[in-house]
C-alpha cells in the first residue's frame, strides 16, 4: 500500500502518527514539502516516509491519495493534477462536495470523504467516512471509531460536530482557569478535569447514549448542578449553540452546493 498526502498540516501529521502507532502495514508514505517543519518531523519518524516537492509526483507514485489541503488551495490544486483510474482518493476537505471531487479526480471512481480528527495521533479519533467502503473503513478503524452517514446531507451534519472541538476545549479551559485562579495546583486541576470528562463519557456510554437521562440523573432538586444548568439555560447559551450549529451547517452546505 502506497499512501500519498497532499498537504502536511496538523491532520496529516495526526493520521501518520496514528498509523505508525497502530503498526499499520504500508509500503510507503509520500508527503509534500508544503510545511517544511512538519514534513521533516514526519520523515524522521520512519524510513518509509518520503518527501516529494511536486504534488503530481505524489499522485503518480501513490495508490491512495489523501487531500489534506485548505478548501481554497484544494480547489486550485485539484484543477492542475491528473489522476488515473487506479487511484483511491480520500478528501478531508469539508466544503468541497463529493460530486466536485469526482469531477476533479476523473477517471478515478473510488472517491471518498473522510473526517478524521487530531486525536487520530493517539488512535482515538471518531472518523466520518462517506460513502461507506469496507477497505476505507478498515483503514480508519486503526485510528479509532468509524461512522458512515447514509447520505451527503447526513455527512454534512456530522461535519458540523467537528466544529465544536475548540469550543468544548475552551469550556474546559475556563474551568481550569477558575481552579488555578483559586490557588489549585495547575497539574492537579488538569488531571481532575480530564478525569471528570472521561467519567462523563463513560457514563454516557453506559446509559447507551441517552443524553437526556444522563443530564437528568446528574441533577438533584435545588442542587448545584441544577443551579448552573438553569442559569446558563436562562441566558440562552444552549439556544445560541443550536443557532450557531445551524449556521455552520448552512455554510458547509452552501459551499458544497456551489462547488
Task: Walk me through the structure.
By secondary structure, the chain is an alpha/beta fold. The protein has 2 domains: 2-148, Rossmann fold; 164-257, no CATH class. Helices cover 54% and strands 13% of the residues. The chain contains 12 helices and 8 strands. It has helices at residues 10-21, 36-43, 55-60, 71-80, 98-104, 134-141, 152-161, 165-181, 186-206, 211-217, 224-234, 237-258, and strands at residues 2-6, 28-32, 49-52, 64-67, 88-91, 110-115, 127-130, 146-147. An 8-stranded mixed beta sheet has the order 3-2-1-4-5-6-7-8, sandwiched between helices. Helix 6 (134-141) links the parallel strand 7 (127-130) and strand 8. The radius of gyration is 21 Å and the shape is globular. The two termini are 31 Å apart.
Average pLDDT over all residues:
95
- Could you tell me the strand content as a percent range? 5-15%
Shape: globular
Q: Report the uncertain regions.
A: none
- If helices are DSSP runs of H or I spanning 4 or more residues, what is the number of helices? 12
Approximate helicity band: 40-55%
Structural class call reads: alpha/beta
Largest sheet entry: 8 strands, mixed
Q: Which sequence of SSEs, written as H and E, runs from N to C?
A: EHEHEHEHEHEEHEHHHHHH
CATH architecture verdict of the largest domain: 3-Layer(aba) Sandwich
Q: Rg to the nearest angstrom?
A: 21 Å
Query: What's the N-to-C terminus distance?
Result: 31 Å
Count up the domains.
2
Count of beta strands: 8
CATH class of the largest domain: Alpha Beta
Strand order of the largest sheet: 3-2-1-4-5-6-7-8
CATH superfamily of the largest domain: NAD(P)-binding Rossmann-like Domain
CATH topology-level fold name of the largest domain: Rossmann fold
Amino acid at each position: 500500500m502506497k499512501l500519498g498526502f497532499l498537504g502536511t498540516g496538523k491532520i496529516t501529521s495526526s493520521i501518520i502518527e496514528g498509523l505508525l502507532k497502530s503498526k499499520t502495514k504500508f509500503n510507503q508514505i509520500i508527503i509534500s514539502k508544503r510545511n517544511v517543519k512538519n514534513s521533516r518531523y514526519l520523515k524522521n519518524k520512519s524510513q518509509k516516509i518520503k518527501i516529494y516537492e511536486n504534488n503530481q509526483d505524489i499522485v503518480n507514485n501513490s495508490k491512495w491519495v489523501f487531500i489534506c489541503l485548505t478548501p481554497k488551495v484544494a480547489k486550485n490544486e485539484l484543477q492542475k493534477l491528473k489522476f488515473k483510474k487506479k487511484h483511491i482518493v480520500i478528501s478531508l476537505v469539508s466544503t468541497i462536495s463529493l460530486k466536485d471531487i469526482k469531477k476533479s479526480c476523473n477517471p478515478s471512481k473510488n472517491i471518498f470523504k473522510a473526517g478524521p480528527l487530531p486525536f487520530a495521533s493517539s488512535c482515538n479519533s471518531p472518523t466520518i467516512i462517506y460513502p461507506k467502503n469496507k477497505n476505507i473503513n478498515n483503514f480508519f478503524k486503526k485510528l479509532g471509531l468509524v461512522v458512515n452517514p447514509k447520505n451527503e446531507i447526513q455527512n454534512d451534519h456530522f461535519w458540523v460536530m467537528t466544529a465544536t472541538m475548540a469550543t468544548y476545549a475552551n469550556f474546559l479551559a475556563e474551568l481550569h482557569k477558575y481552579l488555578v485562579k483559586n490557588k489549585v495546583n495547575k497539574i492537579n486541576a488538569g488531571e481532575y478535569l480530564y478525569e471528570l470528562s472521561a467519567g462523563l463519557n463513560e457514563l454516557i456510554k453506559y446509559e447507551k447514549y441517552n443524553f437526556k437521562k444522563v443530564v437528568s440523573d446528574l441533577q438533584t432538586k435545588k442542587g448545584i448542578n441544577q443551579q448552573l444548568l438553569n442559569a446558563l439555560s436562562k441566558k440562552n447559551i444552549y439556544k445560541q449553540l443550536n443557532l450557531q450549529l445551524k449556521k455552520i451547517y448552512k455554510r458547509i452546505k452552501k459551499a458544497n452546493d456551489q462547488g
